[in-house]
TrEMBL record, chains A, B:
GO MF term (any one): catalytic activity
Pfam families: NUDIX (PF00293), Zn_ribbon_Nudix (PF14803)
Protein species of origin: Methylohalomonas lacus
SUPFAM superfamilies recorded: Nudix
Protein's name in the database: ADP-ribose pyrophosphatase YjhB (NUDIX family)
Amino acid sequence: MKYCSQCGAVVALKTPPADNRPRYICDSCETIHYQNPKVVAGCLVEANDGRILLCRRAIEPRYGYWTLPAGFMELGETTIEAALRETLEEAEARVQLDGLFAVFNLPHVDQVYMMFRSRLLDGRFGAGDESLEASLFSQDAIPWQELAFSTIYHTLRLYYEDQAHGRYRVHTGDIIKLDEGRYELRSGPAV
Amino acid sequence: MKYCSQCGAVVALKTPPADNRPRYICDSCETIHYQNPKVVAGCLVEANDGRILLCRRAIEPRYGYWTLPAGFMELGETTIEAALRETLEEAEARVQLDGLFAVFNLPHVDQVYMMFRSRLLDGRFGAGDESLEASLFSQDAIPWQELAFSTIYHTLRLYYEDQAHGRYRVHTGDIIKLDEGRYELRSGPAV
Ligand SMILES: [Zn+2]
Ligand SMILES: [Zn+2]
């Protein structure tokens, strides 16, 4: 950030009097420009036969890799509305929402992932504009080596673990970037 | 938003080609300025004797009203780090985190509240810079009529409800503004 989005003056990085960290401040109109992490919301969609709906990305990053439908929450939305909208946009699927399943912090990109469990409503799905294809996968067919993001890997892994234990929990954790392309999940308390 | 924070040119509200909603776009440097909801993280802190830690706000909005320690998540933080930092800043309390307790969407102010259950570590607490006082309350002493926000009211209410049932769940819901000063919780699935 170099210019004030309210008045166009040059901003400076300074710590406000009643604050404890530097912010972009406009001396001209006195606006303090706060920057905060963003929420990514998405759905783990289960079909009637237990298979899971994955989309193959038609956009960067991770073009061609498989993902669960998910994307940035928009102004005016709830997290569930965002998850349902992304599922409709990316996988052309209407779903019944079962509940929150995973909250992952990604501090290296300032994102908070919120993934919900859901069930495919009418059996129909398809490739939206941001997807090359959409398809249902049984557990032994999941393309584990071709998943787009570590958030997707851990969501699927925890889902099958919970399923084996006969109980779905709410999982929290931090996905920490170790080095380029290597990430580690540090699990928080599951509830 | 009126000016591009990257180059200072005037921005226009337009829908980008591959998008479906208007964004502030800079024709000069081609930056698309996305705006997204913010996360508020906080702690419900239980002392050894079961009493709950509340702070009386020394800042607007809701100066003088009681709240749980909570505030905006910062860049580079996890939700838990944000909740612990706010608890230290507002209530001078160090806590042991037990787990996620409530996720409330507030679409009228573009916020997502994430409240965690926690226990006071060493019995010490105090009024931070943004608090007039901090104090422990038993259930029958909670100042229900003087709580700062409906998020705080519902967090405390659901906490005591869960406690009476002998089990803490993760609660989700949307807090909808009905009219000035009147809000309603539309509960989502509890897990
Ligand atoms: Zn300005
Ligand atoms: Zn620009």
